[in-house]
Amino acid sequence: MVTFFNGATAREVLVGVDDQARRLAYSVVKGPLGATHHNASAQVFAAGDNATRFVWITDVLPDQLGAAVAELMTRGIAVIKQTLEAQALDQRADMGQ
């Protein structure tokens, strides 16, 4: 179960995990938007000197839900970024940097 910023919940099912590719795929099987199809994947790639790139792809039907899902993903990625940056700062502080 996933709870969104507005209190809405969705049931997600893990479709697969590929540790070597650093990728996972999931599907929303019950959510507040009433999508007839929702499949997504998230993957982390090396992006140069001590950097990474996070790629999150979502397919949703009907097409009219695209804007609402995009807004949820935009808010979600902002929280992910904030969380990772805070953890990085904490780790640097623990190492005395």
Structural description of this entry:
The protein has 97 residues and is of the alpha+beta class. It is 30% helix and 41% strand. The protein has one domain: 2-Layer Sandwich (Alpha-D-Glucose-1,6-Bisphosphate, Chain A, domain 4). The protein is built from one helix and five strands; from the N terminus they run βββββα. It has a five-stranded antiparallel beta sheet, with no helix packed on it. The model has no long low-confidence stretch (mean pLDDT 91).
Sequence-ordered SSE layout with sheet pairings:
Elements: E1 2-3, E2 9-18, E3 23-30, E4 37-46, E5 52-61, H1 66-94
Antiparallel strand pairs: 1-2, 2-3, 3-4, 4-5
Helix tally equals 1
Please state the second-level CATH architecture. Answer: 2-Layer Sandwich
- Strand line-up across the major sheet: 1-2-3-4-5
Largest sheet: 5 strands, antiparallel
Name the CATH superfamily assignment. START domain
CATH topology call? Alpha-D-Glucose-1,6-Bisphosphate, Chain A, domain 4
Low-pLDDT stretches are: none
**Can you give the mean pLDDT?**
91
How far the N terminus sits from the C terminus, by CA atoms, comes to: 38 Å
Q: What is the H/E order?
A: EEEEEH
CATH class: Alpha Beta
Strand content: 35-45%
Shape call: globular
Q: Estimate percent helicity.
A: 25-40%
